[in-house]
Amino acid sequence: MLFCRLMPMVFLLSATMLVPPALAAAPEPANVLHNKSNPVEPVQTGRVDSQAFLRGIVAVHLGDDLEAAQAYNTALQADPANMDLLRQAFVRNIMAGNPQAVELARQVDKNIPSRSVVSAMVLGNDAAVRGAWPDAVQYYHRAGADPMAHLILPLLLAWCQQAQGHADAAIESLLHAQTSVLQPFYTLHAGIIAQVAGQSERAGALFEQAQKIMPGYDMLLTRSYAAWLWAHGKQDKARTVIRKLVETDAVLALAGPALQANIAHYPVTSPQAGIARGYVLTAFLLRQQAREQAQQATNPENGAFNQLQFNEAARLMLGFALAMDPTLADARLMLAEIQDDEQHFNAARQTLERVPPQDPLAAVATLRLAVLESANDHPADAIPLLRHLAEQVPGQIIIERELGSALSQTKDWQGAIAAYSRAIDLANAQKRPDWTLLFLRGMAYHEAGDWPHAKADARAALAYAPDDSFLLNFLGYSMAEQHEDLNEAEKLLQKAHALDAQDAAITDSLGWVRVERGDLAGGLPLLEKAAEQTPEDPEVNYHLGEAYWRAGRRTEAVDQWNMALGLHPSPADEALIRAALQKAGVPATTSGAQATPVPAQPAPEQGKHTP
Hints:
The protein is mostly helical. The chain has 32 helices and no strands. The chain has a domain at 50-277: Serine Threonine Protein Phosphatase 5, Tetratricopeptide repeat (Alpha Horseshoe). The protein starts with a helix and ends in a 27-residue tail after the last helix.
């Protein structure tokens, strides 16, 4: 988005000033910042509670901000003069939503005056929660001197003005900031301020103005405008506005019924809630900037570090938002997304579980939680969530798709086929056929041993996506497995290889079909290349061993088979490998054979032929 590209980089640098990397080295007791205007003498105490400090580092690494805050608080009690510990404890208490962040902000303000932007915002938020609006204005003004708060400052001050009975001045201040890249959002908040102040007609005009200049659909604007339309007797138009919003996103469509049921309720009814929404907007901008930085990064390590910095800054903003409004589902959904990106599974789960069940976005949170469970190898926990969601919000393709995927993970192929079939029927009824659903159901049929239906789905999918290398590989390799029309199978795999020559699974498939056709000279080099690319794939090693055997290279064949057996193959592949070794008349080596069979643990690259 344009407004994200225009964000000054100093915003990021300031936002992360108080947020050290998650695995920062232990703070040196004497490492205290100096400031010309208010110098602070280095302090050497030697009283660091190393156990609590290390517990805090581990908790940060795991994304457990609550545990990290408690650990750093304990460490700080043992060494209250340690400024590094103070910074760590302060930031983690913000992110954990602990009230203690306010007292720590006062300490930061007192001891680190050159870096008190974040503390000023915490103290301003605390004053706003208490209704001490003049104090809030004073703190926000001080924070606004830094580029970090430059973009959000007009929103903070406008809501403070509204709270003190100066709605007209608040609205005018936002409308005069029209040169800002946040013009659509300033206009939106001006409309909400007008509505909260009882200026209904003006609010409607501002909502309509914001709609015209908004770069896309915005949840807060849509809900606010729909509530306004409903209150003014325009119920049909209000429902249409909500319907158009949810039609833009399959996940958001889950919230459609709840949003319609709550259409008459304004999402923001107080200055505190307005300020919270401003912080969510800031976090969103940081997330967008992070994505752009990641796409433009030439060095993956630098890109990952920048992503961490952006995420930490966004989490600070979300911590501010949740301190103002703990029930704000928008903030929790974004926070869980960041935690998931950082592979903090338990933290993301807890964040999603705290979305209030009566919130219109609760169904979205449930789907996100189910997807999170499946992605982290807990499909059995995802399945009941998805089935309950299907009862709450029937007729949703995305729910049936995710249910099919979760059931596939548990190898309930018939259940997966039924779920994918429902999704396909829904897509066809909506005249939006989706070839990926055919592909997924075809793979489930294949795993269930129903090749005729698997082939039919794969061919139907191929008619929609004739140049998808993954689909071509699936169909071509499956035909080779069935020894069915090897000439056509090779043509399909040749096309897949031409589209993606670096994919080891495709290379292996093409090599294997050539070996099956008797073309050892053409197949063996491809199989050797695939084995080099994925040396720990038992299926690839089995194929290479079979090619060596047919080429008369018996010792090398046995070595490959024993290697494959030691890589925890699937039960079907293990049976093939043991049969091959029996054919060779040699026992499996101790590295491959075990007295008690090891449960199948597919390697990361395994299963690309028939996922």
